[in-house]
Amino acid sequence: MHTPQNASNAALNTPKPAFNLYLLGCTLIAALGGLLFGFDTAVISGTTDALRAKFTLSDGLLGFTVASALIGTIIGSIGAGRPADVFGRRGALAVLGVIYFVSALGCAFSWDWWSFLSFRFLGGLAVGGASVVSPLYIAEISPAYYRGRMVAITQFNVVFGILLAYLSNYLIGGMHLGEHEWRWMFGIMAAPSLVFFLLVFLTPQSPRWLVGQGRLEEARSVLQRCGSDTGSVDEEIREIQHSLDLGHHSLREPFYCRRYMKPIMLAVAMGAFNQLSGINAVLYYTPFIFKMAGAGVESALLQSVIVGFTMLVFTMAAMVIIDHFGRRKLMIVGSIGYIIGLTGAAYAFYAKVEGPLLLVSLLVFIAAHGFGQGAVIWVFISEIFPNRVRARGQALGSFTHWAMNAAISWTFPMIAAVAGWTAFGFYALCMVGQLVWVLLVMPETKGISLEKIQEEFGIE
Hints:
The protein is mostly helical. The protein has one domain (5-11, 19-456): MFS general substrate transporter like domains (Growth Hormone, Chain: A, Up-down Bundle), CATH 1.20.1250.20. Helix content is 79%, strand content 0%. The protein has 21 helices and no strands. It has helices spanning 5-13, 21-42, 48-55, 59-108, 113-141, 144-174, 181-187, 190-200, 207-212, 216-226, 233-244, 261-276, 279-284, 286-292, 297-325, 327-350, 355-371, 373-383, 390-418, 420-440, 450-456. α2 crosses α4, α4 (59-108) packs across α7 (181-187) and α15 runs parallel beside α17. The longest helix has 50 residues, at 59-108.
């Protein structure tokens, strides 16, 4: 399923809307949900040894402790679509800010293993919700010409949050705070969570959500400030109304049906392949992996910062070109990089020559993720569903991503304890499958309005 000719023509004929700082400001605020997503996801990587000692955890229980947040993300992602439809994308983002805040303080002050698991689970709910609502909101306020870059800011912030978590862990680790060091690593996230909650109220509701609610004047005002695909706000509203087709469809109509099967299968495949790369196993256990290779504690934390910085740089590079280069080409380049990096890491563990080879291989792997899947996943999933079911479609893609994430992260310590090379070899094989899928199945969506994508998929 390569790029349809009609879609290509539509992209070429789409006028370039004026870029404005208001759109960028709203995008940056919504994308703070992604920054907290990244920080919450990666901060536990610097605490695994302390948690193991504090709560006397086996390899299996350590894996479950790390995965406890991921169980929350699974529930949070699949459950976020409905509140986003009922209360609006902005209202859902505000609630997520509160949950992030409570989770950060709860983890910092947890009194036993069960309380820690409960607050990590709560943080997972926020992460899962943010992975749905942040890109969903940004896609719906952005004109097609800028949509890839705008939605990719969410992923940039996810990566920036990961880097901040690694850097924060490294700095706190250097303070030698003793047995409470891990509590500071979790608790520091309360500050940006509060800032996110307050800033959300400076943003408008999504114009496409407003049209679905019949609030046309409010939608017109938002489109006038954020920009439209057609150059005419009234024409844009008519296209959104046509895509919703509420005279023949309901916002509550069944989602799992033949009509939506094409975007459903694309979203599930994208979410599954993202985690079958092993990316979050590497991000969660980066210091653990380097210590397996013989690095000291501080060296392992520092190399984690290098890993996070590498992904940030390559995510920025992808952001610059995603609306020109296209989603498929980034995925092709990223898939090839995945295969090279993962194969190198597998060989490093197999031949017991970890050292520089392992670091270089992981950096190639991380760069490939930042440039490919990492930059594309949330953009692509936010584009392929019709307006009337986009929140549920985004939730499905995120649910798939987080369900696979939990499975991979839970099993990694046990597999790595037996033979580190087997995990990386398996991930490399999965990325060969992703490359085949991209070449044969994945469509291109760059520069095409959300409503035109629906038409190209043949969804009435």
